[in-house]
Amino acid sequence: MNGSSGPETALAADNISDRLRVSAARWPERAAVIVARHRRGRRVRERSVTFAELERQAGMLCAGLQRLGVVPGRRIVLMVRPGIEFIALTFALFRSGATVVLIDPGMGRTNIFQCLEEVEPDGYVAIPVVHVIRRLNSRRAAFRSARANVVVGPAIPGLGTPLRRLLTAQSPSDAPTAEASPGKAGSHPAAIIFTSGSTGPPKGVVYEHGMFGAQVDLIQQQYGIQPGEIDLPGFPLFGLFNAAMGVTTVVPDMDPTRPALVDPERIIDAIRDYGVTQAFGSPAFWNRVGRHCEERQITLPTLRRALSAGGPVPNHVLERMSRILTGDGADLFTPYGATESLPVASIGAREALSTTAEETRRGAGTCVGRAFPSVEIRILPITDGPIAHIDDLPPLPPGEIGEIVVRGPAVTREYFQKPEATRLSKVDDPRPFPGDDRPSVWHRIGDVGALDDDGRLWFCGRKAHIVEAAAGRMHSVCCEAIFENHPRVYRAALVGLGPRGAQRPVLIAEPQAGEFPATPADETRLRNELLELGRSSGLTSSINTILFHPSLPVDTRHNVKIQREALAAWAAGRVEANDGPVAGPNV
Predict the structure, then answer these.
(1) What would the pLDDT profile of 15-67 be if each residue is shown by its tens digit?
(2) How far apart (Å, rounded) are the C-alpha atoms in residues 380 and 385?
(3) How far apart (Å, rounded) are the C-alpha atoms in residues 60 and 168?
(4) Residue 358 bridge partners (DSSP)
(5) pLDDT for 414-464, tens place per residue?
(6) CB–CB of 442/368 below 8 Å?
(7) Cα(451)–Cα(461) distance, rounded to whole angstroms?
(8) The CATH number of domain 17-179 is 3.40.50.980
(9) Residue range(s) of every CATH 3.30.300.30 domain in the chain
(10) Long-range contacts for 356-359 (Cβ within 8 Å, ≥24 apart)?
């Protein structure tokens, strides 16, 4: 089967919070979470807990939450800042059997309210400002059912139970762990995690405990992560995996909603101070940190592996990080997946640079590697309608671009209360995973790509971003790479204007810092150079319109996914001003 990798992995039947219990029993005195703040090369504040302390906190918090009425099936929104409390509360909520609702605070007020109203939470565990908003909007569906409310931070009368009160009452031994057997009638989901909304309205992805367990196992096995390692997660949710693996989490001193603006010195200080062996960040995070290191000739010898996800990692980031990671066997890995299906595939920078980078520059797409063990990948013909059964469409042969669909023990089964979205994104397969009594499902990631003869997956862009031109389909990532070969171009975005089948392809380039055309003559010169580059490839020879943008709009979660829908509207306005009315952007 195309993209199949290894034997099927059984879904874990345990509540994912049991993993913390195991870590506490095996390594009670080892640091579980360290929160440090750095200023100008020196540490100014630190808080930390051991695994035994974190387990005790989670148990006490679970007991306190249960006394507030948090029982299996309750939906509780968690909105606290990354740190010790975030990790302890997440495991406490898992242990109680509640469904933890996680919403990216950077997705914007409108999207946040929409997500909350879809969920109709039973309570909020949140910082004070969230509770103030809750009280001021108490009649909205997002808040009117909230009865179990906990204030994390300064206590304000009338807003909810202060967090410290949950930690001072009952013994954690009195808090039973809710059962979480997968595939059984009546089992409750572990979490609802909302997508970023970068290519449409955010959707709530329903996670079961067994899916989280499978994620931990797949990631740990793939990268050889050992208990006792030290991780710096640039994305807060990844800190939860660490506690389940016996790995110390160093919470970085950064705003996780703005990884492109991270202060590199604070990240480097933390890596050096704590001997960090692993760090995760979006491509924008590593672009900023890597550039800083390169300019100052800094290396990071303690890092055994860096991880980057959230969007394609440019070759220049791979090259830079390969020079900075000087430890024996150290590498930057780029796991591929989606909120609904993570992880799917992975490749290291050194392999990519030596075997696939040149093809990427020529427009073959971005190679994201081979499937994780027990994960299957198929490439199906591109279609917009639902696919009822996996065998309804034959998989495409290697080398042909089509829709990417995946199956694995960590692949989620549904969106929360969105049956139509579930029907469009999930494909039935009669084969169950061991330990589960249900047929499995494939997830349609929404991306297009191809498998090569070696089983490696090549990402060619989002299905929604295909430009349907008169000359045929144009895939965003493939076409953009041609123009990104120009030394003055930082990144590029392809959009289509007009009706599908006759769209006008428009290339929007964001120049490198300090390289934006300063005069009309310079703009004309750069545009002509890019048009010449485009004519050098059959993929892009039909592109005759090139615009320049000072900073392409990107998603709020990873600061890397280009918002081509917004750019299409912007481009339509610019083209219309120069050439007359346009039939309308592809939005």
Answers:
(1) 999 999 999 999 999 999 999 887 776 777 889 999 999 999 999 999 999 99
(2) 13
(3) 8
(4) none
(5) 999 999 999 999 999 999 988 888 999 999 999 999 999 999 999 999 999
(6) no
(7) 14
(8) yes
(9) 466-579
(10) 356/456, 357/315, 357/318
